[in-house]
Amino acid sequence: QQPVQSPQAVILREGEDAVINCSSSKALYSVHWYRQKHGEAPVFLMILLKGGEQKGHDKISASFNEKKQQSSLYLTASQLSYSGTYFCGTGSSNTGKLIFGQGTTLQVKP
Amino acid sequence: DVKVTQSSRYLVKRTGEKVFLECVQDMDHENMFWYRQDPGLGLRLIYFSYDVKMKEKGDIPEGYSVSREKKERFSLILESASTNQTSMYLCASSRTGGAGNTEAFFGQGTRLTVV
Q: N- to C-terminal Cα distance for chain A?
């Protein structure tokens, strides 16, 4: 089953913050985050492994709560380049199988 | 540079035709995936392969089959194309690192239209 992302869409002004949530009904080994711009392939942002870690690069970070089977992606001081569709992907087994959510569309306006 | 290449960007086929979508990766990855992308439904896994000749069904395998005879190549087959298979198809690959914890690389996608 696909993980559930919320919200489905968000519109921001440059400099504002956003949080995208991802939850699964299955136990998770890992959570991936990807961003897809219109007409392009999804691009990897980060992976979080079970253990409740938090990761980040630049102004984008994420957390993973393995007990709650949830992850959140934090975008701070958003830039125009952050616009796109964000997908979380969940790894529930040790085979490398990766299931994605339905996506969250983020639009950053000047 | 890492590369996942899908054979066609755009494809138009007739209902009932047998359709082959090809994907090749040059990174010696063990894992390969076929996803279908539709608006509002995200990326839905059709099939996953973790080794040559090994495959696992995803969430929506009905109407599709796959073939992986060589490590670098993963083919998606629509046995008898139908209009509800009109969609964007994305191939991806990743290295085995245990527990799905390695980065996946995506191809540019094939926009398939079945008429």
A: 37
pLDDT digits (tens, 9 = 90+) for B83-103: 999 999 999 999 886 555 688
- Report the residue of B43, B46, B71, B91 to disrupt the A interface, i.e. the one with the largest count of A CBs within 10 Å: B43
Cis peptide before A7 (omega within 30 of 0): yes
What length is written for chain B?
A: 115
Using a CB-CB distance cutoff of 8 angstroms, which residues of chain A are in contact with residue B48? 95-98
Query: What's the pLDDT score for residue A29?
Result: 81
Q: How many Cα neighbours within 13 Å face the side chain of A41?
A: 20
What is the spatial distance between Cα B44 and Cα A100, in angstroms, rounded to a whole number?
A: 7
pLDDT-above-90 percentage for chain A: 67
When pLDDT is averaged across residues A88-102 and rounded to a whole number, the result is 85
Q: Which of B50, B101, B108 sits opposite A49 (nearest CB)?
A: B101
Tokens of A40: 């392009």
DSSP string for residues in A6-49? E-SEEEEETT--EEEEEE-SS--SEEEEEEE-TTS--EEEEEEE
Contact B100 A100 (CB under 8 A): no
Q: How confident is the model at residue A55 (pLDDT cuts 50, 70, 90)?
A: low
Cross-chain residue pair A100–B96, CB shorter than 8 Å: no
Contact A100 B108 (CB under 8 A): no
